[in-house]
Amino acid sequence: MSNVKIIHASVDDGHEFEVISVIPPDAKYSLMWMSAMGVAARNYLPMANILAEHGIAVFLHEWRGIGSSNWRASRKCDWGYRQLLELDMQKTFDIVEQHAPNAERILGGHSLGGQLASCFAGWVPRSAAVGLWLVCTGSPYYRTFPFPNNYGVFASYVLLPGIATLNGHLPGKTLRFAGNEARSVLRDWARTALTGKYQVRTMAHDFDALMARNPVPVTGVIMAKDWLAPRGSMEFLQSKFASSAKALTEFTESDGSYEVDHFGWMKSPQQVADALLASLS
Questions:
Q1: Is the dihedral of CA 17, 22, 25, 27 positive or negative?
Q2: Which one is predicted more confidently, 11 or 242?
Q3: How far apart are CA 38 and CA 189, in angstroms?
């Protein structure tokens, strides 16, 4: 049986959070998993348990401002992609290396988690030495969305950061979009959405160039009814990597236990897990 362990993490600026780990005996692989914007890490535990049964040690990263995090976005409490990548994700990766030192590395994520996992994979190649797993994600670049949704998403990339700036943070729970998000996260997200490039303020890294030099196999899973991450969006994100090993599975219907949309698969993740595991065979 897999062992579920809660690992406390803290970084230099005072942020503290928990990493939920599911570690089977003699794990061959490790997976550092990044959740969607506004989704607590614990919601991916059903998928983690499935993957652990196949010899994968899973580490569920907690986003700053969500779930076990001791910070909450406000006018006085702000952060952006730099803190998420340099501090929080780096800390979780250090935990992965400490608790699964002999396992081969996989990095993955859902929605925004898949995007930042891709950036991290470019920046820290060994974090995704064996594979990069992307589920219901893709570049938010508005030109990758089909007409007429591209007009709607373009407007949201302008409107939502503006609301976050005026309010001090994005009141996502009130707007029914993600959680209460930091205004600088929205600004960084919108910059990519409008340009198609991953450029982070206060970071000198050219993430697109770093991804282009990484030959990691990229496995993508999308859902037919997911307007938040359509095929073009996923393909555009996958194209940023040098690898010729790029797989993409689209579910047009489920086994009847979930909706084939952005979040429905989380209720019954077996089919998604099977698609990801197939990349290791």
A1: negative
A2: 11
A3: 14
- Look up tokens 């991804």; give the residue: 211
Q: Is the CB of residue 273 less than 8 Å from the CB of residue 50? A: yes
Tokens standing for residue 205:
């890294």
Q: 102-132: string of b/e by CB count within 10 Å (b at 16+)?
A: ebebbbbbbbbbbbbbbbbbbbbbebbbbbb
* pTM score of the predicted model: 0.95
* pLDDT value for 2: 60
Per residue in 168-215, pLDDT (tens digit) is: 998 877 877 777 899 999 999 999 999 999 988 888 899 999 999 999
Given 3-state DSSP classes, what are the helix, strand and coil percentages for the chain, each rounded to the nearest 5? Answer: 40, 20, 40
Identify residue 219 by its one-letter amino acid code.
Answer: T
Could you give the domains of the chain? 3-140+203-280 (3.40.50.1820)
Q: Which pLDDT band holds residue 1 (cuts at 50, 70, 90)? A: very low
Would you tell me the crossing angle of helices 270-277 and 45-52 to the nearest 10 degrees?
A: 40
Q: Which residues contact 244 (CB under 8 A, 6 or more apart)?
A: 215
| Sequence-ordered strand ranges (E) for the chain | 3-10, 16-23, 29-34, 56-61, 104-110, 131-135, 169-171, 180-182, 218-223, 246-251
